[in-house]
Hints:
It is a single chain. This protein is an alpha/beta fold. The protein has helices at about 5-15, 20-25, 65-75, 95-100, 110-115, 130-135, 150-165, 165-190, 210-220, 235-240, 255-260, 270-275, 280-285, 290-305, and strands spanning about 40-45, 50, 60, 80-85, 105, 120-125, 140-145, 195-200, 205, 220-225, 230-235, 245-250, 275-280. It has 14 helices and 13 strands. The strands form four sheets. Strands 5-4-3-6-7 form a five-stranded parallel β-sheet, sandwiched between helices. It has a four-stranded parallel β-sheet with strand order 10-8-12-13, sandwiched between helices. Strands 1-2 form a two-stranded antiparallel ribbon.
Amino acid sequence: MKKSVVLLLGVLLTISATGTSLAATHHHHHYVKTKSAFPLHIKDQSGHWVTVQKKPVHIASVTEGTDEILSALVPKKDIAMVTSFASDPLYSNIVHFAKGIPAIGNANAEQVLAVHPDLVLMASYVAPGVVSQIEQTGIPVYEFTNFNSIANIEQNIEVVGQLTGTLPKAKVIVHRMQIQIQSFLKMDKGLVHPTVLDYSSYGFAAGRQTTVNDVIVDAGGVNVAKGLNGWQKITDEEIVKMNPQVIIDSTDDGVFLDKIAKNPALQTVSAIKHHRLYLINSADLASVSQFAVNAVRDLHQVLFPRHA
């Protein structure tokens, strides 16, 4: 597996997330209530006001999450740009859909403006200069900051629905996600919840405030790293102390699981003693779109094979 540090940072920024259980958060989410009417005047997640004069038909997506969300909401012809992640099967659930759409690697104003968008969807970690350059041309730019939980993903789907005049469709997608996850939680009722650690070759574990924490909890597991805030580097000693019953990693990192299974310092860990190390599809596990539900399904099948 060869991944650059830039790619790692991109993925971590994209999947960085807050991890309360979906079951707990469903009762008090704050969904967008404004109707999809144009002109639309809306505050983005960075606190800037954005005005979309009419229904956009040439949308530039500069985050992988919005690539996938748009694929479910608008016709392909209305998408002027997606990220280069969209065509990478390791990280994308829309490889076939993305074919033929211009792609961008690192966000830069020139490349975005070259596709003549009438709406640009960006993440707040993009250099501020890029956003202001685009805004100076009069094109609306909505910045997303919340990739912090499955509840945030659902909110982002509704925001994209509002920006593109497809809010009813967005609400259906969110409702479907909730039903799917509730069905897994019902299946787990009365069963023992295994302890789980998500750990990668970069030495990072997924703590609370990560979408992966939500995936673990909603799949019926207990995140042994929930005491950590976000993505944190951990040592062999800490893994031994956590003593997870299951260790997971993403499919793009398969060689690493073999390596830790043979690590002499970890042989007392329950997951290693009982050979419960599993690879979860990386496109699902890294998803910050409606496809995050697939990661819950994938992990649920691993944790409760008889109930899959």
